[in-house]
């Protein structure tokens, strides 16, 4: 009796190694949906493990030298898109000038992933845990669109369909944080198993107060998991308009929960994520608004 056996064949993609940004973009544009850019490869590996088919052509960016490294340009810290997360953690200037971004990277996955994963890949993933931090830092991104290199705010960049537009991210630009009378910043990731899993929620914030304790600028953002990265602009305005955050906790809390776009999945409900986000943000704002005497219990 003849025995037939089904054999699943995993096809290996064709990998290209362009040496310049224009060459990489042309190769991607030539093959359109049949091709994808690849940097560290951690995202594509995860997608394949989840059953997402790999593109038949992979355009490796690893030979494009201009996509690596960090440098100071005017008042910005420029980070090449192929700079690995591990390299960022080894850079003292980044730790000093972009502490919030540094903290976000510390909370990403395991060391093995950070050794391969890149800052560009984390951003292009669209759900990376660094994005809320970059949003509140007013970061800029540069990308090649087939004609020239463009520079725009990260909030505008995130509204693009980067896959459809064939965008090639080249670098991230973090502005110098100007010294204020009093400033606070925070980053918090809520995960199922600390840094080794996808986050349930990520929240970040930066805020400045004047000598009288009034909020002069507030930037708040959330993301993580399947939550779309977003600035909470209505909540920011509500905080600034508050005479005292201590007396406006309920109002700010309600605005955060109302404004935030959330999701429900197998691990947490949309309502739970909104509640956690509001509590994280308010606790940091409340603590940051305290005077020295209040902290000392006087």
From TrEMBL:
Identify the residues that the record assigns to the FAD-binding PCMH-type domain, covering every copy. 8-179
Q: Which UniProt keywords apply?
A: FAD, Flavoprotein, Oxidoreductase
Species source reads: Salibacterium salarium
Cite the PANTHER family for this sequence.
XANTHINE DEHYDROGENASE SUBUNIT C-RELATED (PTHR42659:SF2)
Protein name per the record: Xanthine dehydrogenase
The record's section on Pfam families has: CO_deh_flav_C, FAD_binding_5
Q: Name one GO molecular function term.
A: oxidoreductase activity
Checking PROSITE patterns in the record gives: FAD_PCMH (PS51387)
Q: Which residues form the signal peptide?
A: none
């Amino acid at each position: 009796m003849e025995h037939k056996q089904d054999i699943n064949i995993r096809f290996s993609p064709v990998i290209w190694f362009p040496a310049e940004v224009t060459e990489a973009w042309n190769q991607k544009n030539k093959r359109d949906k049949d091709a994808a850019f690849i940097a560290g490869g951690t995202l594509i590996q995860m997608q394949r493990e989840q059953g997402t088919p790999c593109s038949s052509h992979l355009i490796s960016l690893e030979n494009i030298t201009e996509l690596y490294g960090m440098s100071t340009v005017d008042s910005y810290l420029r980070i090449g898109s192929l700079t690995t997360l591990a390299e960022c953690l080894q850079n003292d200037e980044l730790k000093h000038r972009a502490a919030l971004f540094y903290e976000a990277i510390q909370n990403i996955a395991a060391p093995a992933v950070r050794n391969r994963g890149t800052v560009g890949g984390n951003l292009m993933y669209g759900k990376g845990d660094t994005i809320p931090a970059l949003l509140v830092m007013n970061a800029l991104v540069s990308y090649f669109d087939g004609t020239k290199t463009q520079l725009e705010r990260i909030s505008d960049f995130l509204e693009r369909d980067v896959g459809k537009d064939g965008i090639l991210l080249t670098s991230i630009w973090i502005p110098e944080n100007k010294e204020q009378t009093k400033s606070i910043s925070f980053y918090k990731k809520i995960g199922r198993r600390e840094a080794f899993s996808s986050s349930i929620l990520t929240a970040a914030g930066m805020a400045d107060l004047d000598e009288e304790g009034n909020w002069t600028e507030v930037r708040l953002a959330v993301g993580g998991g399947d939550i779309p990265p977003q600035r909470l602009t209505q909540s920011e305005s509500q905080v600034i308009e508050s005479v005292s955050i201590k007396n406006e906790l309920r109002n700010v809390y309600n605005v955060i929960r109302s404004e935030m776009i959330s999701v429900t999945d197998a691990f947490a409900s949309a309502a739970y994520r909104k509640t956690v986000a509001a509590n994280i943000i308010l606790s940091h704002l409340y603590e940051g608004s305290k005077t020295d005497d209040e902290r000392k219990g006087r």
